[in-house]
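Re: the request from the purification team.
They wanted to know what the chain is likely to look like in 3D before they choose a buffer screen. I agreed to run a prediction and write the result into the notebook, where they can find it.
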Amino acid sequence: MCTAPCYYARGRFFSASDSPYWHRMDYDLDSRTIRASIGGIYLTRPQAVVSNLLRPILQSFLLPFHGLKTLHGAIVSKGGHTIFLMGSGGSGKSTTTAQLMRDGYDLISDDGPFFTIDGTAAIAMSSLDFLHVTKNTLDMFPELEPHVVGVMDHRDKFAVHRAGLQRGDAWQRPLLVDTIVRLRRGPVNRPVVRTYDKRALMRDLFNETMIVFRPSVFRDRAPLFKAYSDFIFEVVAGVVRDAHAVELEFADHHLRDLPAIIDRLGPNGVSF
């Protein structure tokens, strides 16, 4: 919780850090109350309170108790084709998203889309009003400059308001992801698309999103925590089960080629 070790005792979660992001926090399950004392960087960089405290608590901790889960990645959509872009930091998610928006894709979520379960399907929903880009990406896409809001954040990224960039209203609707693209930036001569093993994909998503509650520790509220874990499992399993999964390896000079490649991806796959 809040980028620090988290402990549970008698219906309350506790988190503390003596790092530059100093805090003391607890979350009372019974009263649904969060109490926090903060110091260090939080006192001089208010944006860090949102990014390091409020957002992680909501996205990774509280929302699954209420039927919502975020996954790490970006979602774009065009013409009924909805793509979930995954990848580690620096893999080019935001840059690829900006390129796809230039080609007519709607931004559904830049980082951390919401998912819920509708029957057995995992449904994606928009979670952000901004695209977050580095200075390098901003230089590559000058049309984003007029829509920048505020200054560079603690991740060295600028927030770009998407309202003036959207061409459609797909972001206003719940969507079913049909394609998952795991991005890999590398020194390749041409873009390479290969099928991505769904077992590996499940493992990656569970490693990023799953919180394990040991029964012996949480036995006082075992049904609640079981429901929490079961819901996350259903979301990840539903996303992976219902989508075609590929890995896309590319270099920066291939960016202009990516929209045409991604246009051809879909539930039936594609060969390159």
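For the purification team: The chain has two domains: 6-66, 69-264.
Please add any questions underneath this entry.
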